[in-house]
């Protein structure tokens, strides 16, 4: 059960816990779950959270603590406006204190109200090259959010975006490194197969690669897989 008003002691403990979060202990999803758990502990409104990322003109939700948060993100993406998009693209906190009376953002406030969301805070992530984003806090309170809740929520989000942003960038860097490693492995086995063909048939490099590429098209298999089988067995697969 959420508290009727933010408790200063609980709030500070939550901030301290956010500051102690480490990459070694968490994934992006577990970071967001921790943020949500702490938000529910210190904020009124039974909040759920999500993270919006905007990259190359496309918006996506990379993590959400509850289907409601993801669904409300998608409503805003579909209509091209809403607090989560405004925060992510402008770098400024976007607030929707009462979905039942705010005329901004088209049909979104009414949709949110119909889904049981009474208020929204969308706090921008620290700006990064090529991407921008925001941490979205959806309050499911039966009452509009008051000024004290707004102040604490904004402060909470300011603390929370740091581990969320860092974890997102860390996981993105790891994913890129894995893709690079896979690409390098593919190149190595393809070069090895080319070398065998060049030695065996006295072919130039481009002819050896063309033979692998032609088999790839005829068998509907990746060039890397063709090359790996050839290196392992010494025989090219039949078309």
From TrEMBL:
One of its GO terms (molecular function) is kinase activity. This is GAF domain-containing protein. Residues 170-231 form the ANTAR domain. The keyword RNA-binding does not apply. The keyword Transferase applies. SMART domains: ANTAR (SM01012). InterPro entries: ANTAR, CheY-like_superfamily, GAF, GAF-like_dom_sf, GAF_ANTAR, WH-like_DNA-bd_sf.
């Amino acid at each position: 059960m959420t508290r009727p008003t933010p408790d200063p002691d609980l709030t500070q403990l939550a901030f301290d816990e956010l500051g102690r979060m480490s990459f070694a202990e968490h994934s992006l999803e577990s970071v967001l779950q921790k943020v949500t758990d702490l938000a529910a502990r210190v904020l009124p409104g039974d909040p759920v959270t999500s993270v919006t990322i905007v990259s190359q003109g496309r918006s996506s939700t990379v993590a959400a603590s509850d289907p409601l948060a993801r669904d409300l993100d998608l409503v805003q993406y579909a209509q091209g406006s809403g607090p989560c998009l405004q925060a992510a693209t402008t770098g400024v906190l976007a607030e929707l204190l009462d979905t039942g009376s705010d005329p901004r953002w088209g049909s979104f406030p009414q949709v949110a109200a119909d889904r049981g969301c009474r208020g929204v805070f969308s706090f921008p992530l620290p700006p990064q090259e090529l991407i921008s984003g925001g941490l979205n806090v959806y309050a499911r309170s039966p009452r509009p959010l008051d000024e004290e809740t707004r102040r604490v929520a904004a402060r909470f989000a300011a603390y929370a975006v740091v581990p969320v942003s860092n974890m997102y960038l860390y996981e993105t860097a790891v994913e890129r490194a894995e893709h690079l490693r896979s690409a390098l492995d593919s190149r190595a086995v393809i070069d090895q197969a080319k070398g065998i063909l060049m030695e065996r048939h006295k072919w130039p490099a481009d002819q050896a690669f063309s033979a692998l590429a032609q088999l790839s098209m005829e068998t509907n298999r990746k060039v890397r897989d063709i090359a790996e089988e050839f290196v392992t067995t010494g025989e090219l697969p039949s078309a």
